[in-house]
Write a structure and sequence with these properties.
This protein has 385 residues and is of the alpha+beta class. It has 3 domains: 69 residues, Helix Hairpins, CATH 1.10.287.110; 99 residues, Urease metallochaperone UreE, N-terminal domain (HSP40/DNAj peptide-binding domain, Sandwich); 112 residues, Urease metallochaperone UreE, N-terminal domain (HSP40/DNAj peptide-binding domain, Sandwich). It is 25% helix and 25% strand. The strands form 6 sheets. The protein has a 4-stranded mixed β-sheet. A 3-stranded mixed β-sheet has the order 1-9-8. The protein has a two-stranded antiparallel sheet with strand order 2-7. α2 runs antiparallel to α3. The radius of gyration is 43 Å and the shape is rod-shaped.
Amino acid sequence: MRTRNAVARDYYGILGVSREASDDEIKRAYRKLARQFHPDVNPDPEAQEKFKDINAAYEVLSDDRKRQIVDLGGDPLAPGGGGAGPGGPGGAGPFVGFQDIMDAFFGGATGSRGPRPRTRPGADAILRLELDLHETAFGVEAPITVDTAVLCTTCSGAGTAAGTHLATCEACGGRGEVQSVQRTFLGQVVSARPCTVCQGYGTTIPHPCATCAGDGRVRTRRSLTVKIPAGVEDGMRIRLAQQGEVGPGGGTAGDLYVEIHERPHDVYSRKGDDLHCRVTVPMTAAALGTRLTIKTLDSEEIVDVKAGTQPGSTMRLRARGVPHLRGTGRGDLYVHLDVRTPTKLDADQERMLRDFAKTRGEEVAELSKQGGFFSRMRDAFNGHG
């Protein structure tokens, strides 16, 4: 029995075909030799070995991937070269080659991946939109201007000039990559890298479109109208499907995200769907009670301030806040009261206040006799006076 050498076998010579032979020529040569050397027809041991070589050659040359390895000077069936195990060509021996290990771990990364497509999805875009509180609360249709890539109308995304077409890359034969075989102590390693001539596309553009320079898209400014729903908050994003960047080669456009930024309001501050404001009332109004007119975001409300209202008191107006974004109803409006104490009094005002203090037993002279400021503070916390 012959022993196979470590050098790469001439699979083309085994079948008696040239390196430029087509798939049909390889198949016809194989059938002719298989009928001649089949063990049922020719029981000679040498013929049996020849028949194994014929099968191995057809297995390699009928597989585009293995044939590429042969064309690069390698042997895909050599031990450690990604071929069959010790059981013979096409057999299922207990060992696998280095190529099989690489394929198992990296998903065939060392094999042919094929050309990458020129048409690819576009990227998403984001736009900042500033709105007033009234607009975020009740919604608005806002005009926006977007600078994005759009489909080239001259070539409709093809990237080629009128009347021309893509051409198969001569450097890689349309595969989009070039391969090389290296011999290492582990066996033969087939590596692939993108073709530098066509950038991995497998095709070239001999005559690019004059408008887009072959990209299939151009940048332009577009005007859109975005519908802002009632109740949006600062920082929220609204998605406009396929209004972003058109992809290379006229690929599907990405999405446009409109990010809401709410301008500060002169009167109201917002916490979720609730609104807060501060109203200053005179000391006398807080003591005697009064009626206030509060202007909300969409109406006017009259509220009663009870007599004896203390500084820091809060009044709640139900359902006068921001509408809920999801669902029905609205938040509340909280009115925080600041009681204003007069800082300057004329003689008559001071006299009247002192008379008032006497009627309540709160004369300033008497307070001063109770031990000064810290004593008065202690008495106030203890509930005296």
